[in-house]
């Protein structure tokens, strides 16, 4: 356990993805255990922490602006710490861009946050302190007193691994996080039991690549094995959602586990990044398009109600008009439920930065708009097919007589909502009848005649 600190308050601003949110929650647990208290206002805190995102240029700029804002208003007795991805990658350069940073801690040893605060309090000179070990480390539930969980209402993100060993040419994550490091199965199961006791309704498994879980532990089909354990030992959590699968690693066993374990939602987030073999080869991504067709066909055969989300990058260096048309044709053929589209972001020190024929920004933007226009029509049609049917939703909030909820088809923050006429209880899973469809959202009514909640993955015709 970490050493105790003298009393004080801390403030954490978490930027970026849900994986960063889990890291922020874990740091907060360590600081709480050491005797500090979290506050919601920076002006009330002695220790200011910005957990930065360094994935794309827009995220870097947001992180820089947040640090500059806190540095500009920092009082003499306050300590400003830059944490997270941008800190790990840029270190001293970040301090030069933002005078006033007192400490820098990266992604690979965030669990040393208490020691860094202690060292900053004891320092005799104003130079910033750096804590940026190169070794990638993750922790279990009983180590350092930090759980790898972020609870959002009755949903909870659980980080099962960190880092990545994939060779994607456009991605800086391996430079930031290091190689993939999986957490012990027992630690994850222990955390899941605590979530079950706390009444969590939805457990969302996250990592840079969930389908690589257990590889470094010598496990085969590690994710399927973990899901088997979780569904057997935490039956009280009705929804388990899988995010960030990697093409080529969705195995037959994983498909079978998803199809036969009722707690596992028939939802998969599998970023494919493109639909042209030529572009995928330059991206250093799996380029077997036929695998995508075969595997998705197998998944839909095993789970006819499967909701499939993916992500694409448009405007990758060298992307021709023909390659972009191949992407559009792929999207038309696959009929994804959800699609996220990003324009290519230049990342220094990645292989893509050295590739020729970078695409002009106006062309990138036009291609993004064309792809999203196509997907909106597909999403609308898939939503319209649900009108008149019944499905379960997790109630998240009320607003002037309208209830905001999510179905199994909707991951938090990135997908759509089900808007319900009436006010069923917040935090419960209830059946609703779908009455209308938009491109991203559904409308529905809650009806007591529908009875008790049905299986999470079941859609009934009425």
Strand order of the largest sheet: 7-8-11-12-13-14-15
Number of strands: 21
- On the 0 to 100 scale, the average pLDDT is 92
| CATH topology name of the largest domain | pyruvate-formate lyase- activating enzyme
- The oligomeric status of these chains comes to single chain
CATH top level label of the largest domain:
Alpha Beta
Low-confidence stretches: none
The fraction of residues in strands falls at 15-25%
**Total DSSP helices:** 13
**Gross geometry:** globular
CATH superfamily of the largest domain: tm_1862 like domain
Structure report:
By secondary structure, the protein is an alpha/beta fold. The chain folds into three domains: about 120 residues, Methylthiotransferase, N-terminal domain (Rossmann fold), CATH 3.40.50.12160; about 240 residues, pyruvate-formate lyase- activating enzyme (Alpha-Beta Horseshoe), CATH 3.80.30; about 70 residues, Nucleic acid-binding proteins (OB fold (Dihydrolipoamide Acetyltransferase, E2P)). It is about 35% helix and about 25% strand. It is built from 13 helices and 21 strands. The strands form four sheets. Strands 7-8-11-12-13-14-15 form a seven-stranded mixed β-sheet, sandwiched between helices. Strand 12, helix 9 and strand 13 form a beta-alpha-beta unit. The protein starts with 7 loop residues before the first strand and ends with a strand. The mean pLDDT is about 90.
Short account of what is shown:
This protein is an alpha/beta fold and 462 residues long. The protein has 13 helices and 21 strands.
């Amino acid at each position: 356990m970490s050493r105790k600190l003298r009393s004080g308050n801390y403030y954490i601003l978490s930027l970026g993805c849900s994986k960063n949110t889990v890291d922020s929650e874990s740091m907060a647990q360590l600081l709480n255990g050491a005797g500090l208290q979290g506050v919601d206002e920076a002006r009330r805190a002695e220790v200011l922490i910005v957990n930065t995102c360094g994935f794309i240029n827009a995220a870097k700029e947001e992180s820089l602006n947040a640090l500059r804002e806190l540095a500009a208003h920092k009082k003499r007795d306050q300590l400003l710490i830059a944490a997270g991805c941008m800190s790990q990658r840029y270190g001293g350069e970040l301090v030069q861009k933002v005078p006033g940073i007192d400490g820098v801690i990266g992604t690979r040893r965030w669990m040393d946050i208490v020691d860094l605060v202690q060292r900053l309090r004891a320092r005799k000179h104003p130079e910033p302190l750096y804590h940026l070990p190169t070794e990638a480390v993750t922790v279990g539930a009983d180590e350092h007193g930090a759980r790898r969980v972020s609870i959002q209402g009755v949903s909870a993100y659980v980080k099962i691994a960190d880092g990545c060993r994939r060779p994607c040419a456009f991605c800086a994550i391996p430079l930031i996080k290091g190689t993939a490091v999986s957490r012990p199965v027992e630690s994850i199961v222990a955390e899941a039991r605590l979530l079950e006791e706390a009444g969590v309704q939805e457990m969302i498994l996250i990592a840079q690549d969930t389908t690589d879980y257990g590889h470094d532990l010598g496990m085969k089909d590690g994710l399927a094995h973990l899901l088997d354990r979780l569904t057997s030992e935490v039956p009280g959590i009705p929804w388990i959602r899988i995010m960030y699968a990697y093409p080529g690693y969705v195995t037959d066993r994983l498909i079978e586990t998803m199809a036969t374990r009722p707690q596992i939602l028939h939802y998969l987030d599998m970023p494919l990044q493109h639909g042209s073999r030529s572009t995928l080869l330059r991206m250093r991504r799996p380029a077997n398009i036929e695998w995508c067709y075969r595997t998705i066909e197998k998944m839909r055969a095993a789970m006819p109600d499967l909701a499939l989300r993916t992500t694409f990058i448009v405007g990758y260096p060298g992307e021709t008009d023909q390659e972009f048309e191949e992407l559009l044709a792929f999207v038309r053929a696959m009929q994804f439920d959800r699609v996220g589209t990003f324009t290519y972001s230049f990342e220094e020190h990645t292989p893509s930065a050295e590739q020729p024929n970078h695409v002009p920004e106006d062309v990138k933007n036009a291609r993004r708009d064309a792809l999203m226009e196509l997907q909106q029509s597909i999403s609308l049609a898939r939503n319209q097919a649900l009108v008149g049917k019944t499905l379960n939703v997790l109630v998240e909030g009320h607003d002037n007589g309208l209830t905001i909820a999510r179905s199994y088809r909707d991951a938090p923050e990135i997908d759509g909502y089900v808007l319900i006429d009436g006010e069923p209880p917040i935090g419960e899973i209830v059946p609703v009848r779908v009455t209308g469809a938009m491109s991203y959202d559904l409308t529905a009514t809650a009806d007591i005649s529908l009875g008790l909640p049905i299986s999470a993955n079941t859609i009934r015709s009425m």
